[in-house]
Amino acid sequence: MTTKHLYILTGASRGMGLAMARQLLAPDHHLLCISRRPEDSLAAEATGAGCTLEQWPMDLAKSQTAAVALQQWLSDPSHGRFKSASLINNAGVIPHIGPLSEVEPGDLAQALRIDLEAPMLLCAAFLQATSPWPVPRRILNISSGLGRYPMASQATYCAAKAGMDHFSRCVALEEALKPNGAKICALAPGVIDTDMQVQLRGADATAFPDLARFEQLKRGGQLDSPEQAARKVLAFLNHPDFGRESVADVRG
Hints:
Elements: E1 5-10, H1 15-23, E2 29-35, H2 40-49, E3 52-57, H3 63-74, E4 84-89, H4 105-130, E5 137-142, H5 155-176, E6 183-188, H6 195-201, H7 211-219, H8 226-237, E7 247-249
Helix pairs in contact: 1-8, 3-4, 4-5
């Protein structure tokens, strides 16, 4: 039997995801990262921290493959029993920034698979496989303010995050009916200085009416670093009241 806490984290190879992975490296943690590619520096740091680390190189656009793999892994009794289990759906992409009529169908479909389909399938796999576990279980879905406020030229991303918020509300109601139901929350992490922000600031002004807003956020020093954002998000996850709200914002 293990005495470790299990954390499953998607999108752990860069940005806030990598920052969260680094902050989760602790002797009493078992960290499973699902990302497009493994991060070599993370493996070395995990060894130094005495943390059990697994990295699965996986394309979350192939969401069914990822979900089946996760369910099989969680159902394998050879891992022993964990003190708690947490799933953090962090991976996300923004397709071409422009009006919906200009987005290539393939890009739109891939973004929806990664931003919405994969979190839903991974949540389902996690809940089904861990349902017999008599330990605390938590699901943290990294959402966005854009799931709650519309923005031109961001229809795909806004829709995916709005879907994440609402499916989190639905799952919270389902789990509340169970004796040891999992706690779930879709959390907007604030505005973070990541590659996604660089992508937004690099958009064509004629196709993205809100470009100036994102440029001002950068100039005004209003962006959290990935490390700052990761600390806030993990503090929220580990708070005793986690799950009291199924949709929340780290800024309150």
